[in-house]
Amino acid sequence: MTATLLKEASPPPVAPADRDRKRRARRRARVIALAFVLPALLLLGALVVYPVLFSVGRSFFDASGDRFVGGDNYTEMFRDPATLKAVRNTAIWVVVAPTLLTGLGLVLAVLVEKIRWATAFKLLLFMPMAVSFLAAGIIFRLAYDEDPEKGVLNAAAVSVHDAFKDASSYPNARARDGQGLTRAADGSYRTTATASPGDTVGLGLVGVRAEDLPGGARPAYPAATGKASADELRGVVYLDFTRGGGGEQGKVDRTESGLPEMRVEAVRDGAAIASATTAADGSFRFQGLDAGSYTVRLPASNFAPPYEGVSWLGPALVTPAIIGAYLWIWTGFAMVLIGAGLAALPRDALEAARMDGANEWQIFRRITVPLLGPVLTVVFVTLVINVMKVFDLVYIIAPGPVQEDATVLATQMWLVSFGGGNNQGLGSALGVLLLLLVIPAMVFNVRRFRGSQR
To answer: E strands within 318-446?
Structure first.
């Protein structure tokens, strides 16, 4: 009876014709799938696989591509100072940019959860991602311009500096040769002849445009003709230039303007005994001086060049400046990804910590960050891969004279191959090096994704 039941429960035998039909259906499905995938495989082979294999092969030939040189290009690559600087700058990018972006994205993602207009704030921070690297590079090249009239950052820096420290009104002023003033090594001017209380001294300067004079400047002639008392030393600092020509050098003419707000010192035995600031007509006076001879000095601060801001694109700051532009673009990306991970955190753990008396900093450090560990790792590794390939920003923002100071492996590869070096063998070796550096991070990211899917 048992045998009868097993016989009745067993599936009926499959006919050979049905088995062949199912096999043909599976084969047909695979062919159809391959037909849909084939265009993508062809593009992948033409745009990725073939260039990689060609670059690897090209790296073993000389600049002309005719002579096999083996590993000479790889040896030369690590002897070239420009390449070593590119490796150093790439290392700075890999360490600094992903770390700052991940930390900044984490902080912003946590803070955005606590404001009312979170969506609008996220949109505002994510908008730079819609700007191409070319456009972003042009924007920041202008923002970093050293001329305060063009560069917005230097305009802000100059405004803040001038708010706390007065700028010189006469950076281009100078004295005529042989007119009673001589220039010292520190940039100050002093009289060649001494003066005593009761004297009136005229200090003529040139190099000041009439339109650059302070608004309240008045003619210096009345002050120059005034009489000094016995215990005071008087004088006038004036613009020794008459509009339309005429006048006499070294003498105050009726139409010549005084130079107000000029610092003047009375010097004796190398020490400043008294100081004064010129009035609107350029006049000054030292009262209560002891009898004797004095030298009148115009300190160098009167002629100091105006503060022009920071040389953002100079050799010292060009790499941090470009990294700043990169942060502006990618902060929204890091914030959105970390914010998505933050939204998936179990709220019961956070509420339990608050009920146990933990403050927000303790919750952030001991619960939020550890739970976000996988997301932070993926964001960090993704940014590492991205910064290793950065090219556009460096090439566009860095001016020609400091291009070598800002160069990274991607820009160095282009410069060596096409930007004047014309050595595509060495450029291919740099490309292979860049590929070898990127592969470990890519493998790590793929394994992370597979682990998260499981």
So the answer is: none
Q: What six digits make up the tokens of 296?
A: 């009148």
* Residue 70 three-state SS: coil
Domain boundary among 303, 323, 341: 303
Instruction: Output the pLDDT for position 5.
Output: 47
Q: Let me know: does 122 contact 332? Beta carbons within 8 Å.
A: yes
Based on the structure, what is the number of domains in the chain?
2
Please state, in angstroms and rounded to a whole number, the distance separating the CA atoms of residues 276 and 286: 7
Could you tell me which of 200, 258, 264, 202 has the C-alpha nearest to residue 232? 200
Could you report the average pLDDT of every consecutive run of 10 residues in the chain (454 residues)?
50 65 84 89 88 89 86 86 90 93 91 81 86 89 88 87 73 83 88 87 86 82 78 87 74 85 89 90 87 89 82 90 93 89 81 81 84 88 90 90 89 85 86 88 78 64
Q: What is the pLDDT of residue 83?
A: 87
Strand 263-268 and strand 271-277: the pairing is antiparallel
Taking CA atoms, 50 is separated from 80, 389, 426, in Å, by 28, 19, 18
Same domain membership, residue 369 and residue 339? yes
State whether the Cα torsion 79-83-85-89 is positive or negative: negative
- Within 10 angstroms of residue 341's Cβ, the number of other Cβ atoms is 19
What pLDDT is stored for residue 14 in this prediction? 55
Determine what percent of the chain falls in helix, strand and coil, rounding each to the nearest 5. Answer: 55, 10, 35
Give the total residue count for the chain: 454
Would you state the structure tokens that stand for residue 343, as one six-digit string?
């939204």
DSSP-derived letter for residue 279 is -
**What is the Cα 143 distance to its own chain's centre?**
9
Domain residues for the domain of 296 are 181-303
241 and 141 belong to one structural domain: no
Give the type of residue at 178. Answer: G
Q: Which pLDDT does position 92 carry in this prediction?
A: 93
Report residue 120 as tokens.
């609008």
Amino acid 340: pLDDT: 86
